[in-house]
């Protein structure tokens, strides 16, 4: 019995999916559970698996087609079975190789006479004949023959100038411009960032001393790596500290919804992650209840799957607060745009030695800049400042807090 391969709907917002690659060709044998086709949505690329074993048949959507969800794109058939007749899938957009259009035939227009130039002119019979053949008005030409006579060369020169292709405008150092369509991911980033920036943002920035933070991380590295097999990162520590600061300042953990403010009881932290064609934001669930080892393990797995295009939509939805860290790229400070529908996002710069005053002396200390972006519809400067004070306290005095939460519950037993 024929089994239809249907484009699934991964979330409520999904309307179409793009066929990026058929992993099997029509006529190939497929086994149940085997990947058949890769589909790209606004945020992820996923594989559609075979729901039955058989022969792939009647492939109705090509690579590059954008197909409406819920439609049949192919069938899995028994050997010798004919595919049933079904409507062609709804193709929202179809990628086509650009066809080379034939060059349009040149139709030489009649050149008008020069304004106010109604004159007697002399032209050789040969010149008159060539002008007629090329549809050239002799009134527009200046003769170079004796007495201003228009000769054969004058007409041929005018014909050559008219039919010559216009030269390309060239400027030193400028290459030809290229117009490329946005990917599905970039389209959704553009749309969501435009929506986000309509919210009234404001920014609070502090510098924090990371001397103790760095020392504590170094001392925790062996234990975390032994338990998880993964290296503890600055971001892992920040996720834990941000979660604790949100517990201390619950008003920060909120969103604006239709004239109201929703306070979240859960603390689910999104982490902005760079992928090949844009950004994804996987979510660390209940970060305040996880140990450092659990956060490290979750962060590493989510990041790996994000860069492999294997994240599910559920793993990128419903965060309550987001961290964007560009410190590893040498960025000192930046302001991040809110991740809708959240009311705040923390931008993290690099740790670098700076000259600071300590006990009346100028000394070099490792400093990090944190910038908090806030939705002013639901949060004010004082709330944000108190949150940043909590962050500074935990970053500059991390020992007791981080050591008590480093191990996983399993390792404590």
How would you portray this structure in words?
- This protein has 413 residues and is an alpha+beta fold.
- Helix content is 27%, strand content 25%.
- The chain contains nine helices and 19 strands.
- Strands 10-19-18-17-13-16 form a six-stranded mixed beta sheet. Strands 5-4-2-7-9 form a five-stranded antiparallel beta sheet, with no helix packed on it. A four-stranded antiparallel beta sheet has the order 1-8-6-3, with no helix packed on it.
- A hairpin with a 4-residue loop joins β4 (35-40) and β5 (45-49).
- It is flat, with a radius of gyration of 34 Å.
- Residues 97-119 and 409-413 have low confidence and may be disordered.
Key descriptive features of the protein:
413 residues, alpha+beta, OB fold (Dihydrolipoamide Acetyltransferase, E2P), Dihydrolipoamide Transferase, Chloramphenicol Acetyltransferase, six-stranded mixed β-sheet, five-stranded antiparallel β-sheet, 27% helix, 25% strand, flat, disordered C terminus
